[in-house]
Target: CD6 protein
Amino acid sequence: ALRLAGGRSRCEGRVELEQEGTWGTVCDDGWDIPDADVVCRQLQCGRAVRAPGSAAFGRGHGPILRDEVGCEGHERHLWECPAVLEHDCSHKEDAGVVCSEHQEWRLSGGRDGCAGRVEVFFRGIWSTVCNSTWYEPEATVLCRTLGCGNALQRPSYGHTLPGKMVYLCGSLQPSLAQCRWIFNKSAPCYQSWAAGVVCNGTGS
Model:
């Protein structure tokens, strides 16, 4: 089994493999984008945007199961790639991945980090969110994801960033990435404004 740990979504984090019931990590010696691409594709997270080393997502635990991984990028599973099983690494060299399907959010232009225009980082760029389907559930999910409590208001702004995202949450999902979403399709964003939110918490 394979997973990403310590990131902000299931498509970002420290690379961890399971071997004989024990989870371990991968050393960052020789770790690069083709290696990360295999991880992202295996987890159905698109392609690799970054392949950070040096325990960028914190130090893991357990054995270090791979070193000098040398994927070409077309392999279906990470364990199909050539690698050294003996290593001279410590967990401060744990390999990480940021995949294109990873999403993170911020609020800009408001009084603090819990108010403002909603911006989403997705597929390597920051985008605005269309307010055509931006209702109470969507706003509340975002406030809770950011640790900002619940939504008080949903102000509108002009679109100022290149990409546009639409979210549709049927209920209070753990994050907007688990709601239905559409990226860069003009129809749902036609004549929309950029979504905003004012949460009842305060943030930096």
Observations:
- Residues 35 and 111 are 41 Å apart (CA to CA).
- The domain at 2-99 is CATH 3.10.250.10 (Mac-2 Binding Protein).
